[in-house]
UniProtKB/TrEMBL annotation:
Residues 7-238 form the ABC transporter domain. This is ABC-type branched-chain amino acid transport system, ATPase component. Belongs to the ABC transporter superfamily. It comes from Pseudoxanthobacter soli DSM 19599. It comes from the Bacteria.
Length: 239
């Protein structure tokens, strides 16, 4: 019997009060797959990420993690089911060092295991090891982004959602961040990448979905989406 997909969205609708944002979303993420979620500003990408991590509750539909419907479950249960959400460099504790910030994300884990996870993060981002005693907030924007990614990895997730992690980063920092994601992909980590930067996301992803006004308008392999004439229309408007 084959394993259920790591993540499935079936007929998901979501919004904020009267504002209906997502309409009948269906998507599947399998183990080891890197899936990009693209779309213009306001298309609903961030809302989709919050639906998966449990901070926005869908008004209809199913969010199925490893075969279990998680709709209505609190975010910590979704984290416990193996989903980590890495958002725009936030959630760094200013009074804690880089290393303490990382360890906080693996609370309750035996010390030896914590150390192994730390080593993995430090192998990925040498700068975090160099700065491990410094306060989290003394880091540059790009370094804080690496710390946010490191924190997501410290929970040993089965799937990581990266929400606009390249936002506001200098190109050289984006290169570092995307090199790290390429290494994680090579290690077989399953990732859902919500991204404004279409070229970078499509270069990394296996498959992509393009949202337009809260609906998936274009889906396929990264290569087929990249070369689809509709991609431009979805970003720059049809004329
Ligand atoms: P961006 O790239 O600009 O963040 P996005 O594709 O991630 O866009 P969302 O952030 O999901 O889009 O927003 C989709 C719609 O939902 C927008 O119209 C936005 O104004 C609205 N919205 C987002 N968050 C809230 C909220 N907390 N309350 C009310 N409306 C919201």
């Amino acid at each position: 019997k084959s394993e259920p997909p790591l993540l499935e969205l079936k007929g998901v609708y979501a919004g904020y009060g009267q504002a209906k944002v997502l309409h009948d979303l269906n998507l599947t993420v399998r183990k080891g797959e890197v899936v990009a979620i693209l779309g213009a500003n306001g298309a609903g990408k961030t809302t989709l990420a919050h639906v998966v991590s449990g901070s926005v509750r869908p008004t209809a539909g199913h969010v199925i993690v490893g075969g279990r419907d998680m709709v209505g479950r609190p975010p910590h249960e979704i984290t416990a089911a193996g989903i980590a959400h890495c958002m725009e460099g936030r959630r760094i504790f200013p009074s804690l060092s880089v290393e303490e910030n990382l360890i906080m994300a693996a609370r309750g884990v035996p010390v030896r295991e914590q150390q192994q996870r730390l080593d993995r993060v430090y192998t990925l981002f040498g700068v975090l090891k160099d700065r491990r005693q410094s306060p989290g907030t003394s880091m540059s924007g790009g370094q804080q982004q690496m710390l946010a990614i490191g924190r997501a990895l410290m929970s040993a997730p089965r799937l990581v959602i990266f929400d606009e992690i390249s936002l506001g980063l200098a190109p050289i920092m984006m290169d570092h961040v995307y090199e790290a994601l390429a290494r994680l992909k090579a290690e077989g980590l399953t990732m859902l990448i919500v991204e404004q930067d279409v070229d970078r996301a499509l270069a990394l992803a296996h498959t992509a979905h393009v949202l337009d006004k809260g609906r998936i308008d274009l889906s396929g392999t990264a290569e087929s989406v990249r070369t689809d004439a509709r991609l431009k229309h979805l970003y720059f408007g049809t004329t």
